[in-house]
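Predicting holo structure, glycine bound.
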Amino acid sequence: MKDYKEFKNRRDRLATRIGDNVAIVANAKESIRNKDCHYPFRSDSTFHYLSGFPEPETVVMIFGGKNPKSIIFCQPKDELKEVWNGFIYGPKQASKEFLFDEAYPLTEAHKLIPKFLKSKSVFLLPSSKIDNILSPKWFEENNKLREDLSEILDDMRVVKNDFEVNLMRKSADIAANAHIQAMKLTRPHKYEYEIEGEILNQFFKGGARNPAYSSIVASGANGCTLHYVENDSQMKDGDLLLIDAGCEVGSYASDITRTFPVSGKFSSAQKAIYQLVLFAQKAAIEKVKAENFFDDPHKEALKIIINGLIDLDILIGSRDEVYEKELYKEFFMHRTSHWLGLDVHDVGKYSSKNNPSVAVKFTEGNVLTIEPGCYIRPSDNVPKEFWGIGVRIEDDVLVTPDGHDVLSKNAPKEINELEAIIGTSSA
Ligand code: GLY
Ligand code: MN
Ligand code: MN
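Done. Tokens:
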């Protein structure tokens, strides 16, 4: 039996933050893929964060105030259903194992939830899935206030404790190993999806049953399409291969990108862009430490990439002009970082509530990605040897008491390491 104390602790912490009021979260529904086939079920991240309970549509109520408690509404036991679809906890076992104070069948939720609501305010997520029980009209008629739960929960989720960091380390280790195996298997004439298959194979072998997002395996100019997921091109000698792939462990994501030559050897143009992005990425990582601002890594990476692209005659103009007119966005059009956690683009504020132009500061326990890139599409203004080069290098970085720790450090990124490993598997 797993230990669900961590999830109870989170509910207890939330209870202290909502005063005498109540918070309600509901799990996602199953999604139909076609006819009577469903997509693999994935719990809503916030619901998972507060319960660890794996069944769809379950509802959890958390009461603050002097006598905090939490209640779960879940599917009743049903032996016939269980024969077809597998185990159902049922309220009794759910409350025992997942440490709820009370439990009721989901079929009672309609009746009981409004009855249990004595407080003035009800904290719900903006995309609350219980509008069928507590509609806007219900709030009006019952003179209750609907408050935003996401502000409190996002602040909790953006700081990871040891329990969460351990899962994120495992997730990053498995994904880093998958990248290494992908490098070993890469060679000209294979198809991108063969490499994607190996990545998924390594996720499963490592015990991560889900990718954190659709893997990007993009050879040649496909690497210049940021969200390329077709993964169906044949890889050519002379192409770079950009792989952006991460998995989930305990629902926590890793998010790693590596770029390397299909043939095992960088051309001089590829090497120039790769070295530039690598230099920018390492410098950006150095900016990750408590009390620095969230946008410090991006500023650093951007400065280096602008200077580098001007030196390579890819960007024309003075540094100030390129910066002010945002000419760099033709080649580096995304931000350097996002929070990482239960969602790959995790919750958490990026700027101060009172002043949106001021970034938040890093604090111990934050996990973010550092992922600068350069994507050079064919253009008469750019020297031809750079056309079709797309490079991104992405690591997952934890803010620690004395700086940072790169969780994904096992995935090689130095040119000599990459050139030594590519294509070394005979499979
Ligand atoms: N894999 C999604 C991202 O890098 O943001
Ligand atoms: Mn990312
Ligand atoms: Mn990524």
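The chain is about 35% helix and 20% strand.
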